[in-house]
Automatic annotation (TrEMBL):
Protein name: Uncharacterized protein
Provenance organism: Halorubrum ezzemoulense (Halorubrum chaoviator)
Transmembrane segments: 12-32, 38-58
InterPro entries: DUF7554
Pfam families named in the record: DUF7554 (PF24431)
Keyword line: Membrane, Transmembrane, Transmembrane helix
Source taxon at top rank: Archaea
Length: 62
């Protein structure tokens, strides 16, 4: 197979496939970044929840 024999449509399909893979990797990276941010914030969120529960208990709202 000669390099000059590659059809233009085939080259466009390869480029399209590479762009789709690149976009998927960007989306996965963004989702993982949000997940890691939530995991980093988890102790703070647990602390806030404990403060709210204790405050509600002391004011007889629970």
């Amino acid at each position: 197979m000669n390099r000059a024999e590659i059809d233009t449509d085939d080259l466009l399909k390869i480029v399209l496939l590479l762009v789709v893979v690149w976009l998927l990797l960007e989306i996965v990276g963004a989702v993982l970044e949000v997940a890691f941010w939530l995991l980093d914030a988890l102790p703070t969120l647990i602390g806030i929840a404990l403060v709210v529960v204790i405050a509600l208990h002391l004011t007889d709202r629970i």
